[in-house]
Amino acid sequence: MRRLLPSALGLLLSASLALTPAQETRAQHLGSNLRCPICTGVPITESPNDISREMLREVREQVAAGRSDRDIYAYFAARYGNFVLLDPPKEGAGVLLWGAPLAALAAGGAVLWGFLHRKRSAQEEAAPPTADEPFDPYLAEVQRRTRRAGSGEGGGA
């Protein structure tokens, strides 16, 4: 009997909130973006616990009262924290969390580009063999060292 009382009370309250089909669709959409505070990663529309049902009832009340989506999300974020939002706002510390992977990817790309560009420059520095003589790596190394010694960079043979 005690278990039926809250269910009957919830049914009575939901019957008093006669929403239009558009309002009910909006309430379901808003509820699908709110996380159950007890369940892990489950929206309140899919959670069977009492807190989620209470939150969904509150969403319906606020939709019936004509509050905007932003106001409803702000209400639940103020009450439960930003954790309750399945799609938290991308501002403040959230921007850092969203932007850090992109910044890391850009930095990694820049390092890779610099490494490949430096390697290509070193390869271009070596004198390419002429068509008349075959490539001799020993001769190329001697020529490179003599060029450095002649320009005053040191590093004799």
* Percentage of β-strand residues: under 5%
| CATH homologous superfamily identity of the largest domain | Cytochrome C biogenesis protein
CATH architecture of the largest domain: Orthogonal Bundle
User: How many β-strand runs?
Assistant: 0
Family: Belongs to the CcmH/CycL/Ccl2/NrfF family.
Transmembrane segments: 95-116
Protein name: Cytochrome c-type biogenesis protein
GO molecular function: metal ion binding
Describe, in plain words, how this protein is organized in 3D:
Possible subunit of a heme lyase. InterPro entries: C-type_cytochrome_biogenesis, CcmH/CycL/Ccl2/NrfF_N, CcmH/CycL/NrfF/Ccl2_sf. Keywords: Cytochrome c-type biogenesis, Heme, Iron, Membrane, Metal-binding, Signal, Transmembrane, Transmembrane helix. The protein is 64% helix and 0% strand. By secondary structure, it is mainly alpha-helical. Helix 2 (21-32) crosses helix 3 (50-65). The model is unreliable at 4-15 (pLDDT under 50).
